[in-house]
Amino acid sequence: MNMAKFYEHHGEVRALAARIEGQLDPARIAANPAGVSADVLQLFGKFSVHLTIEDQALYPRLAQDSNAEVRRMATAFQNEMGGLKTRFDAYRKAWPGPMAIAKDPARFVSETREVLTLLKTRIEREDRQLYPLAERAAA
Questions:
Q1: pLDDT of 67-90, one tens digit each?
Q2: d(CA 79, CA 9)
Q3: Domain locations in the chain?
Q4: Does the N terminus or the C terminus of the chain have fewer Cβ atoms within 10 A?
C-alpha cells in the first residue's frame, strides 16, 4: 500500500496547525479574528478530506488484512478516531467564524491549543505506528 498521499496530507495539516499556533495570542485574535478563523476553516476542511479518505480507503483495507496485528491496530485507530472526531466537531460548532472567536479570544486560544495538540498527537501516532505497519503488511 502506497502511503505517500497520507503522509503528504499529514504534512499539510501540520503546516496549517503551525500557522494557527503562531497566531494564538488573544490580543492579536481580538484585533483580527477573521485571519485565524480562515486558517482554522482551511485546517478542518483539509483534515475532513483526509479522514474521509482514511475511512473509505485505508481502514477498510487494513481491516481485511491477513495480518492480525494490522487488523487490530486499524480497528483500534478507527475506534479512537470516533471520539476525536466528536471533539473536533464540537470545537467547530463552538467556533464557527470570526464573530464567535471575537466574543472570547482567550477561550478560543485555549480550546484551539487543546484541539491542535490532539490532532498533532494523532498524526504523529499514525506516522510512527499505523502507516509503517500498513506499508510492511503490503510489502
A1: 899 899 999 988 888 788 889 999
A2: 21
A3: 4-138
A4: C
